[in-house]
Structure formats: C-alpha cells, structure tokens
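In the current project phase, the collection of sequences with tokenised folds has grown. A representative record is quoted in full directly below:
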Amino acid sequence: MKLIYCKILLIIFLSCFCFQAYSQTYELLLIENSGTDNKFLNKLNYKKKFPIKESRKKELNEIILYFYNEGFITARFDSLIDDSLLLKAYLNIGEKFELAYLRKGNVDDALLSEVGYKEKLYSDKAFNYDEIRQLNEKILTFCENNAYPFASIKLDSIIIDSNSITASLMLNKSYKIIIDSIIIKGKAKISNSYIYNYLGIKPGDFYDESLVEKISVKLKELQFVREIKPFNIVFTEKDAKIYLYLNKRDASSFDGVIGILPNNVTTGKLMINGDVRLKLLNSFNRGELIDFNWRKLEQSTQDLKFNIVYPYILRTPFGIDYKFLLFKKDTLYLTLKHNIGVQYIFGGNNYLKIFLDNYQSSLVNTEGLENLTVLPSYADIKTNLFGLEYNYINLDYLYNPRKGYRLRLSGAAGIKNIEKNGKINQALYDSLELKTTQYNFETEINFFIPILKRSTVLIRNQSAYIANSNLFENELFRIGGLRTIRGFDEESIKASLFSIFLIEYRYLFEQNSYFNIFFNGAYYEKDIHNEFICDRPLGFGLGLNFQTKAGIFSINYALGKQFNNSVDLKSAKIHFGIVNYF
C-alpha cells in the first residue's frame, strides 16, 4: 500500500513539474544605456512576455528597426544578459541623424520618374531607414520587370557631417535577360503558341518578374491541366528558359439529365424530359472549346445549342466565339439564332467580347390564322443586335468551389423588324410599329462564401431585360428548371424581365461531392403586345452531388410555388443527372 501511495505522489509531483515547465513565461527587459533615464523606452510600447524563448530575439530586431526609422541609425544593444527566464537588453540609442540630401547617383531619370523619386522628398528630414529601403525596392522591382532580374542597389559616397547624412544611389543592373523559351514537362499537351499567349511570356521578350510570379496562379485557372510541381527557371548570362511541369486534367465532359414530372396534358401521367450535353475542351491542344447541348423540354419541343470558342487567333490575345441556337416550340414557331463574337482574353475564362447577334423566329403552322381578329401571341421576327459581354471568374476550384466569385455582364442594342405574315389579316398590323429599336441586358453574379472547413454558401443573382415596345412570346426569355429557378418545369416561365435570387448551403465532403439545401425566389414580368403578367415565384429543396467511377452523379428534389398558390407536394420536381469528365 505504501508503494502505491509513493507512486501516486511521484505522478502528482511530475505532473506539477511538467505543468510548471510547460507554462513558463520568458520575459524581456529593456534598459537605456545612454544616460537618458529611459525617456525613449518609456514611450516605446514593446512586448515584454513571450511563451517561446526565441521570440525575444525577433522583438529585439523590431526595436532596432524602429529606431532606425526614427533617424537613430547607430542604435545598438551594448550587452544582453540572459538568466534563462529574463533577458536584460542594454540599448544604446545613439544620436539622431538628418538626411541632408539623397542624390540620384547613376540611376537614370526615366527609371526614377517611374518609381516616384523626387529630390525634395529625400532632403532636409529625419533619416528614415524604411523609406530608403522602400525606394530601393521600387527601383529593384522596376529592374526585375524590365529585363534585369539580378540588379542590386546600395547607398554610395556617404558623407556624415555632424548629425547630417548625404549619400548617392548606386545601381548595378547586372545581366540583361531575354526569354529563350517555355518548355513543358509532363503528360499535358498544349501548343506552344497557346501557352505563350496565355501566360503573356514569349521568346524574345525581356524578362518580367511580374509575369513570372503569376505563372502558377494562371496555370491553376486552366481547366485542362494541373501543375504537378512548381515551375523553375534556368538562367544564363543572356537568356532564361522556363520549365513547366504539367499533367493533363480531365476537363471535357458528357452529361445527361432526366427529369420526371407530372404531365400537364394528361392527368395522372408522368412525363420524362431530357438534357444531354457534350463539352470538348482542348481536344486540338489549343485551348479551344466545343460545346453541344440538346434538350427535350416537353412534348414536341426541341432545343439545340452549339458553341465553339477558338482563342488566340494568329498568336494574338483575340479569340473567335460562335453560338448557334435552334428552338422549335411544338407546331407554333421555329427560332434560329446566330451569335458571333471576338473576345479579348485576359486569361483563363476571363474576357471582354464584342458580338453580333442575329435572331430569326417564324411561325410554323399558319392554319386558321386568316380568321383571327387580333394578332396572335407569336410573330415572324428578325432582330440584329450589336453588344458587349464581360466575363470574369475568380474561384478556388472551378468544378466545386468553396470560395470566390463569378461575374458575367452583357448588353446589346439594335434593330428589330416584325414581318407581316401572309396568312394573317394585314390590317391587324396597322397599329403596330414594325421597325423598332431593341435593347437586351443580362447579368449573372455568383459569390461563394466559405464557412468553417467544409462548408460554403452560394449567393447568386441572374437578371435579364428586353427593352422593346412590341414584344411577342416567341422572343422572350425562358426560365425555370435546374439551371435557373428550381421547383418548376424546365423553361416553363416566359419573361421579358426577370431577376432570380438563390441562396444555397453546401457541405463539401469530397473534392467533387457535396450536399446542398437551397432557396430561390424570383420576380418576373411578361410584357407583350396583348398581355401583361407579373409574379414572384419561389422554390426550395435539397440535393446531392457525388463522385463515382462513371462521373459526378446528381439528384435534386425541389418544390415550387407561384401566383399565391400553396405548395403542392404532388408537383415536386426530381432531377437526376451525371457528368462524366474525360
């Protein structure tokens, strides 16, 4: 029994000892060693207690730099006395010096103008070590960004007269470096012209450190490659070779969505719609995009979209963007749309585009139109618009982001022509202005706000507006469904103006997998020549996206409500989908 008590006492003693050792505090005491009764130190708010012994040395360096910046350039510690827990530092502040004049030395005037050097800023003032250091850094940064990465600078011809200092700048530019080439190591296949234009670094260019520093960031923005290890640069006395270590990343995709929803025509029956998309990215090693999308939204309705983007035409930062749309609404009308644009590419998916939009919509079945006494909701229309589009993406991960934002803005203006249909009584067109000016505006803003380690909140707004005095239903926006406002049939809502807000919580449990809960609400107007409707629909629900060997599988369950109707569980929308990257 005594042995047990002894062991317990020993454990308690060791625990107390360890706790005391663990909770030790290291102190720092400064003493002025210049007979000034600590008048400077009394004004200095320095840290006196530290959990780690080595942290005291860092604090001493900060104190010396402080006095350097106040003009005491001879400040020093005469002695340090360390008794393990308390460090006494005897500080000799010295005399305060004035900067009488800082001459430009051998630095040329053009360079000094670029960095903001003016003689009056560096004369007749307290010598400030940090201010001189910042000037030197600006000069070196300019040199590094203009072919001289090994430049160095110092103060020369220093003259100390009493407490006044005069000095000159002395710049040594060293070697002038020109870019020789960019060499890609790894399994990624990218044409040289693409990578040169994308990074903005080309053979024969002067070395620019500001561009080199952005290489890894810009490579991360590319969807079809991944950096397997940091790049490195091999210098000679004349040039530099940049080595990139890249592997291919699966970025092309094939996905399909199947929707199961009530049939609005036949009561008690279900209707299946489809959405198939093929997206090919960098198939020809030039960063090009080919995007094909076919959808069957409802009975006898087809939707076909095709988009091709070819960047860096003739090794310039300009790219070609062509979009084609075919939409057939049952036997009512057929719409064809061509959009061709020229992009100015900032990098990645970021660009400014100027475009021409040609829109044609014509009636398909004209049977019975001759008996109408008012114009129908659909018309034969031709519109030509010129516009600008801006797209910017800044996300930490493109496919399943946790933080960042995405922005797209588009505006266009042009002429709209309403063509008289030969089957309709021509007198019905008399009160209608056939040639008018039209304006189109579209915006989409996405914010991903990180919460804790695995969660994010997505806040999105999608808005659009067609400004024209004589609109018809076959030229309106079509919203509703998985990609706009969930809880409603795909593109079941026609609108001349809409604004959709979404707030969605996502729990990210894998790189490409998440569980989400969402709420979306909208305001829209349908303002056409013979009808005006406005409403505030809303939808809510939950979903799941998860990675499988076959691709990323998604399922969403959503309920919707509009026109002050109550939520009907029988009208719930369930969407299944899978995206396969290759």
In short: The radius of gyration is 35 Å. The longest helix spans residues 2-22. The chain has four domains: 24-92, 98-172, 178-248, 253-581.
